[in-house]
Every structure is written in C-alpha cells, then in structure tokens.
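MODEL INPUT / OUTPUT PAIR
PAIR INDEX: 1
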Amino acid sequence: MKLTVSRQALLGALQAVIGVVERRQTMPILANILMQAKDDRLAMTATDIEVELQSGCEAQIGMAGDITVPGRKLFDIVKALPEGAELKLALKGERLSVQSGRSRFSLSTLPAAEFPVIDDIEATQTHELPVDVVHRLLDKTYFAMAQQDVRYYLNGMLMETDGGVIRAVATDGHRLALCQAELGDKNLPSEQVIVPRKGVLELQRMLGDQGSLTVSMGKNHIRIHSGDIRFTSKLIDGRFPDYQRVIPAETGNYMVADRDTLRRALQRAAILSNEKYRGIRLEIRDSGAKIMAHNPEQEEAEEQVEVEYSGEDIEIGFNVTYLLDAIGAVDNESVRISLNDANSSCVITVPDIDQSDAKYVVMPMRL
C-alpha cells in the first residue's frame, strides 16, 4: 500500500470514525482503524463490535492495499501536523510509514483480514429522510434512554415505522420521550428496532446539518448513509415495552405556562431539593402553580408561577430533573402539562396538542 493524501482530507475522514475507537480494548484489533486504498480513494473503518463507522477521502494511490493501524495514534499524528500539509503513507513490512515534510512516523499494524467488518445487513426497509428530521427525532428523545439498566432493552432507543410515520421512543422506566415524523410511503408494514445507547449518541455526533440520508433497517442491524459516512449499529435483541399504554388519556386537568418562566422557577427550586432524589412538589390551582422543595438540612424553596389552569386542584411530586429535561425539549414559548391526579403520570407537550410531533411522560414521586 502506497498513497499521498492531504492532511485536511485525512483528518476529516478520521474525525468521522474515531468516536468508536476506545483506547483500551479487550481485542487489540478494535483499537485499530481499517485502511483500504484503491481507485483514488482511501476508505477508513472503525468498530467496537457494536457500532461501525466508515468514511473516506480522495487520495493519490500509488499502490492499492489494506491494513489496520492504531486509530488514536494516527489521529493524534495527523491532527498535530501543520495545516496544508501533505502526507505520504507507505506499508513497509509490518510497519506503516507516515511522512510529511521533515516529520516521519512508523506505526505498528495488524492484518486487515483480522478486522471485523459488517458487510450485508439484509435490510427489510429502506427510507430516504432529511438530516434535520433524523436530528430532531434523536435530539427530542435521547435523554430519556436508560443507562446500564438490567432491563437491557431500555438501554437504547426504539425506532418504529407505522402507517407512514417513523417514531423514536426512549424510556428509563420513570419517564418517556416520543417524537415522530411523516414518511412518504403510507403503506409500509410496521417494524420496530432498538438501537443501543452508544449507537444513538454516535449517530447524533456524526450527522451533518443539512442534506438527506438513507436509513436501512435489518433484522440485526441498522445502517445509515450520510454523505461519505456510513454508520452501522447492532440492534438490541429484546422486546420494547408497549409505550402507548404508558401515555395517560387526556383529561380536563391541564395547565399552560410560559416555558422559560416555568423552567427558571424549577431550576431555582431544584437548588434546595434533595440531592439524591431531586424531588419537588407542585400545587396547581386556578390561582397559579406553587413549586416547593426541601432537603434533609431542613432548607426550603418556594416559587409562585402564573399559569392558565382548568381542572381540579392537584398536589403532586416529581423528579425535577425529569421535568426540566422534558420542558427543555419543547420548542415553543409555552408548554402544556396535562395531569389526571396525584398518582398518575403527567404529559408534557406544546399547547396545541394536535400540532405536536413530540410528547413527554413523567411519572410522579411520593414525597
């Protein structure tokens, strides 16, 4: 393998894939990046077995070939070289020579044949979607995913196609976030896949700001093509909870408040909440909402917020972090919180629920 490539092009390709390369690996080959040089193009692939990222750049190929090299070391070398630099890469025996100006580096390698690559994912559905739509689906729901829950199917995000709609749903058992978008084809069969947490976070990082991408869903993998980048993730093999049963039916008890005013009041009250349980109490009446918090040091906070409220008087407790996450995800000047009673979950949306493509459910707390 022998090639010449610009620093800018190589750095861009490395930045796209380096996120899945961890410094400490159980398998040495997973600390490496697969480099494949042919047809005036250098392809780069990185994986941690669960998530695979592939990118590439134009290069002058003197001799085609493939090899794996330590990903972080190569990335750090290329990043440290001056802008506008040109790199000459050549495989010499079991070492990759990297030369740029007066700088010369020699990196260890491992055979390309040992690198685990996901080839065909046997896609059952493929969709063309705008990048901003996928960004929105992820950004409005990712925070509700569980972290290291024994219910492994919660440690990820449900992606569902159903009747011309694609839907993202995440829950940790205490709260739920849902966002959906229209698909062009109304006659698609229903399908559900669970993308692991790391895959969701890596996908958020790699997506651009505009353009379109291709989403392919298979039985065991999901694959997304966006420009020069190809993202592939294993799916979580499990059954996601029936989230529709978690969403309470609408009642006449709901309040509408200025989103920023309510958010700031909750943030202030949270300062004196119990650091472990983060509980706050809401008293909602026609006259307004009162937010109260206290902690084991007998310190107390109280906030009064003007709201529009129709329904019965309610006193209810919530984890303030969950409320703040949900209210923060609502992109509207006002927020609507629907409540049934002190023992039921609340639903947070925009005031005009018919126009809402996202909703959030937060379970109550006993205080």
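PAIR INDEX: 2
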Amino acid sequence: MISDKYSLWSALSSQPNTGHTVLTPNNRGLAYGDGFFTTMAVIDGTILWLDYHQQRLISHAQALQLDIDSDKLLIELQAQAQQLQQGMLKLIITRAEQALRGYAFRTSESGSACEIWLKATSMTKVITEQLSLPDGRSLLIQLMTQACCLTSQLACLPSTLAGLKSLNRLDNVLASGELQTLKNTRVVANGDAIGEGLLRDMTGSWVEGTMSNVFYQLTEAAVADRAQTYCSVVNDKHDRAKPCDYLTTGQWYTPSMSQSGVAGVMRQVIIDALTVTTTPVIIRPLTDNDLPQLSQLFFCNAVRGVMPVSALTLLSGEVISF
C-alpha cells in the first residue's frame, strides 16, 4: 500500500479506502486547482507507457513542490491495473490541506504533502490496432477522424507551468464544449465523425487538440512518389488503411509546449522514438499560413494513441483533406 500520508480513492470499490481522507471543500485541487493528473491506458492488466507516466509524476511533483514516492505509487497503480484488466486509470494528485489561509502553503514537509485520488474506468472494448515504432514498440491507432479549427484559445503560461498537466484546465473545458456543439450540428463529409478540435493559444499559434497533442507534415516536406506498403493496421468502413510506415515516412513537426498546452506522454513517446531515424521530429510553430500547406495531420494521447485525421475544417470553412 502507499504511504499513510496519501489518500487513495478507488473507483473500483466506489468508496474511499478505510482510514483515508475523503474529499472536502478544503481540498486544494478542488479549491485552487493545486495539483496535477495523468491518465493511463490499461490493456491486459498492464499500464501502457508506465515509465513515461512515472517521469511525469517526478517532473510535475518537482515543479509544484510536492513530495511523492513514485516507486511506491507505481506499485499501487500496477495492482489496480491488474484488477481492472481493460480500461483507464486517472490519477489525480493534490496538495494536502494547509493550515494557512488562502492560496498559501508552507515550503516544508507539511506543505509538500499530498493526497492521491484514483479513478478506474472499465472498458469492454479497447482498440488494439497498432503502428510499429523504430525501436520495435507499438502504438495504438484509431480509425480515421475529421477535425476542425476552434475559436476557443489556450492561455499562455509562465515557463514554470507551461506544459504541465495541471488541474487548471478551464480553457480545455470551454474548447471541448465548443467542439461538442460542432459535433451535434455539423454535417461532415465521407462519413467520418468530427473527433477532435485544433486550438490556438493567445499568440495565435495552433498548439494542440482539446484533449491531445498534434503532429503534422507540410506539403514541401512530403516525399514525392514514395512507395507505400499498406498493412491491415486500420481499415474503417471506407476500407482505407494507413501505411505501415506512417510514423517513419516524411518529416513530422509538432508545436512547442514552452508557453501553452500540455506536454503529453504520447507526444514524448513519439518524439523519442523518431529521434533515431533520419527524420526526427522538429519542434516548430503551426501558424495560420501553414494550415493550407498541411499534407498529413494526427492527434495523439496516452489513452487513444495515434488519431489520424482525414480532413481539417479551417475557421474560414475551407476543408483541407489528407
């Protein structure tokens, strides 16, 4: 079990563990968003990309001055994954309640103590189609989807907070609301549903999706007349397939997380995996002028893996097809 200073809420039992703290209005995550979270896919009782999630625990705890024993916590998470078998674990970490009034916390052991909350969601159907990485590992890949540019914007943050998956996600909440409205009202071509929205930050650069990071290729960087060997990785109702070398052919770019957005686990997995290839990922802004020049686009996160995009609808209404 984890240390007594941690509070673990298990959705598997729907009750707080005996002897642990229950959520109150004094919880700093509830009151101030003072904490962070990470969401993990579980397949066959195994947490995917567990080492990357541990890196997030360590880096975020350091950034927010929280005291977390990540090794002990991972043992507990692995036990929960074994019990869950198929689904998703959402881990939320908040600073422990403080005796000080308001936002303040003591820069001491008591100020660094935290509470840990875990939500487990069972999924009876987990998509297991995969794309291979250069090092032999595989990524989950979803069916083709459409995306649209959203008018909602992401906040720009100081360097100490930019890229963190903190509990302060109101910009994503509002953007997701806008996306849901579009899903309910917009008729899309080719039968592909709208699966994600592309978001700008306050500087006007396009940064990420409402729940995912984005990677893209540009027309001038595409490899002309390349031979593609197709496999049965993803075949949707239109019998389209993504090439086996989808991630390793052509130059991929992804926006920086230095002032807005979330530096996601899957984003880092892909960046690390392609570092050893002849075309490592380039960190580069995605601007309005780039959008008509896009030749490929996908979103990604740790639960869904890679989400290839078949078409992107711009704010002008123009549709870029891939």
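PAIR 2 NOTE: Helices lie at 28-32, 50-64, 70-84, 109-112, 170-185, 265-274.
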